[in-house]
TrEMBL record:
Coiled coil: none annotated. Residues 38-57 bind DNA. It comes from the Bacteria. GO terms for molecular function: DNA-binding transcription factor activity; transcription cis-regulatory region binding. It comes from Glycomyces buryatensis. Residues 15-75 form the HTH tetR-type domain. This is TetR/AcrR family transcriptional regulator. Keywords: DNA-binding, Transcription, Transcription regulation.
Amino acid sequence: MLGSMAEREVGVLAPERREQLLAAAADEFTRAGYERASLNRIIRDQGMSKSSFYHYFASKEALFNAVVTGLATAVAEALNPPSAEDLTEGDFWPRITELTDHLARISRDEPAAARLAGLYYLADAPNGAGTPITAVRNAVDDWIDRALEIGRARGEVGDGLPIALQRHLAKAVIWAMDEWTVANLDRLSPTDLGRLPATQLDAIKRLLAADEERG
């Protein structure tokens, strides 16, 4: 169970209407951040009254949680990521490359992926224990940590730094490149965009490489 009653949905909105509301809310949260996002603007743009909104959602946080849950479910279904244990079979980095390429396609073709990425990094998102955004972040961290453990055991990833720091560094590279891409999107050609996932992975691979590979 996620949070208290005040943080959960309290009514059932028609599926199409609910999808429209959550999409509009996702765009508002991504654009303004959680704290500055205007619940009034979301409601008004959807042609809803406040009393109608509160019939279905107990709070702004409940709406945010519903947005994250819906996006995470859609992305998980589209991505269908392998378990980290699958990396024990075959070549480690080529398997990571396959996953990265697939994720890049999902990010390009699935609006839910772009919206979830925008919410994932929000510094002011509700992130208490049991909240959907924390669950998503923990799931990502757990997968990366297990993948790093497997890479280290196979000699594909260096072991000179703690795994938690390696994960932090890898995510910092991803975030920095994603942030730069968004800021320069209007100047990037389709070819440029197509090269970015490989460039991103190459930077991470160099950062995490085993000592003998660095030389």
